[in-house]
Write a structure and sequence with these properties.
By secondary structure, the protein is of the alpha/beta class. The chain is about 50% helix and about 15% strand. The strands form two sheets. It has a seven-stranded parallel beta sheet with strand order 3-2-1-4-6-7-9, with helices on both faces. The mean pLDDT is about 95. Bound molecules: nicotinamide-adenine-dinucleotide (NAD).
Length: about 260
């Protein structure tokens, strides 16, 4: 019996990248799945692919995590359909880059609403029932290397990833007495669609310097499957710090 076998696992951002890869990895370990994402069509396709691979997908429910009422609806559907959740994974996120003279208020707001308020909405709606169910469990919050140290252009993104780290560091202690473990996932570069959809204030996407920067970033990237493997191992071993690449691990400990 692993930490996943026979357990129900909720994954946000499940239609793409790390969320999608983690859904396949958790299913391979015996978990049944509740999947959510803002993009309904890719979410439905991912759920079909998982079912075709033999996974149990209880629900593939589209929701915008930045919308509290949508997350309330997701929780209601989930507890109606499945009765309980054992593992909650906050993976959904967007990337916003830019310099302070170019970033708009809307870009700051949207990044905070999705990357920080999104996981908070999920925690608000899923953790109290998990505590009440007294089944223990695990919470995974996906932060970033940008939640550990400053990276150029990353101010809005870092604000959310440092914020999520703050929430996790507190819940790590608060949830211990309920036998709910917490993992903070710290990806470095991952080759996912996020890299191409990054919202960059005031920078032309065809800008040569930008393409070079993204090229350099991707040269150090791990695949979403490699990162998902680290997430699964983190839950199995009840690790708080989960590094998805060696560079981040070394950079983090080098800063201490
Ligand atoms: P991705 O773009 O492939 O996947 C993110 C998913 O989140 C998408 O399916 C998207 O539709 C979904 N999403 C976006 N906004 C949403 C919303 N409002 N509500 C619900 N779902 C929403 O990106 P990824 O690289 O797999 O990112 C996964 C996580 O990893 C994110 O939290 C990201 O910040 C983090 N991360 C990524 C990298 C990287 O290099 N790709 C590095 C560090 C951290």
């Amino acid at each position: 019996m692993t930490k996943f076998d026979g357990k129900t696992c909720l994954i946000t951002g499940a239609a793409s990248g790390l969320g999608r890869a983690t859904a396949f990895a958790a299913a391979a370990k015996g978990a049944s799945l509740v999947l959510t994402d803002i993009t309904a069509d890719t979410l439905a396709t991912t759920a079909e692919e998982l079912r075709a691979a033999g996974a149990t997908v209880h629900l593939a429910h589209p929701a915008d995590v930045s919308d509290h009422s949508a997350v309330v609806g997701l929780a209601a559907h989930t507890f109606d359909a499945v009765g309980h959740v054992d593992i909650v994974m906050n993976v959904a996120g967007i990337a916003t880059w830019g310099t302070v003279d170019k970033l708009t208020h809307q870009q700051w707001r949207r990044t905070i609403d999705i990357n920080l308020m999104g996981p908070i909405h999920v925690i608000e709606e899923f953790l109290p029932p998990m505590i009440a169910a007294r089944r223990g469990g695990h919470l995974v919050n996906v932060s970033s290397a940008a939640g550990l140290f400053g990276l150029p252009w990353h101010a809005p993104y870092s604000a959310t990833k440092f914020g999520l780290r703050g929430v996790s560091e507190v819940l790590r202690f608060d949830l211990r007495r309920h036998k709910i473990g917490v993992s903070l996932v710290l990806p470095g570069a991952m080759a996912t669609p996020m890299v191409d959809s990054v919202d960059i204030a005031g920078v032309d996407r065809d800008n040569a310097a930008l393409r070079k920067a993204i090229g350099l970033f991707l040269r150090h990237a791990v695949t979403p499957e490699q990162a998902a493997d680290a997430v699964i191992r983190g839950v199995e071993r009840n690790r708080y710090w989960v590094y998805t690449s060696r560079d981040i691990h070394l950079a983090h400990w080098g800063q201490r």
